[in-house]
Amino acid sequence: MGKILILFLFINVCGFAQFEILKEVLKTGDELNKVLLDFTRLTDEEENQIGEGLDKKIIAGKAGFTTNKYDVKAVFTKIKKHVTRTKINYRFALVKDPDVNAYAVAGGNVYINSGLIDFISSEEELAFVIAHEIAHNELKHCISAIQYQVRASQVNPLLGDVIGIAYSIYRLPFSKDQEFAADELAVKLLKKAGYSKNGGIEFFRKLEKLEEKYGQDKRDGLNDFISSHPLSKQRRERIEKM
Ligand SMILES: [Zn+2]
């Protein structure tokens, strides 16, 4: 952890204003993203350590669950075989939460809600969701969000709390471009793992109906699928063309 602490010699108090600034920064696209990633250059090992700490904070107070509906472990393992960031500690946790959602955080952790397991109706849909979440970490979307936030904080020669920073932003939505990129990579991962892209198409088709029910304003930032942008319809149509 020592190297990370040296790397993050910043102090951060994440207020609402910073959230808003960060949201704007995230919209500016991948070019800046690459520049900032180069600036901090975290190793996969360091990212895993951030993920460990983050996992403890996210899981605290949350109940897990087990399911017989699908062999989540088997599906996850099949897809994980085809990652390129082989040193990242890809794993999943099942969380008891009725919200139809799954999300990924830095270090490879994927959280799958009981609401999502109830909502899907095939192993192919589950495989798409898992591939999409893994793709966010393959593309470094999660760790770069943390790095943005560290950079957005005022530089201060005091010991910073990188896990605290990571926790303060894990609920922020990804950008539209990041969602499209994760869908695209998910389809590639699915093919390699022996699944068709139909799981993604079916999943978004059902979400389109759910979106109508949720309405534009009631969406949770944490929700990786029912977010204000891009809409399920757009995402489905893109996958159909892939
Ligand atoms: Zn996503």
Describe this structure in words.
By secondary structure, the protein is mainly alpha-helical. It has one domain. Helix content is 58%, strand content 5%. It contains 12 helices and 3 strands, in the order αααααβββααααααα. It has a 3-stranded mixed beta sheet with strand order 1-3-2, sandwiched between helices. Helix 3 packs across helix 8, helix 8 packs across helix 9 and helix 11 runs antiparallel to helix 12. The longest helix has 18 residues. The protein is globular and about 40 Å long. Bound molecules: zinc ion. The site of zinc ion has 6 residues, from helix 7 and helix 10.
For the structure shown, list the relevant keywords:
single chain; 242 residues; mainly alpha; 12 helices; 58% helix
Instruction: Please write the string of helix (H) and strand (E) elements.
Output: HHHHHEEEHHHHHHH
Name the ligand types: zinc ion
Treating each run of at least 4 consecutive H or I residues as one helix, how many helices? 12
What's the Cα radius of gyration?
A: 17 Å
> How many strands, what sense, and barrel or not for the largest sheet?
3 strands, mixed
Number of DSSP strand runs: 3
> What structural category do the secondary elements indicate?
mainly alpha
The tally of domains stands at 1
Poorly predicted runs are 1-21, 25-29, 155-159
The N- and C-terminal alpha carbons lie at a distance of 41 Å
Task: Provide the spatial order of strands within the biggest beta sheet.
Answer: 1-3-2
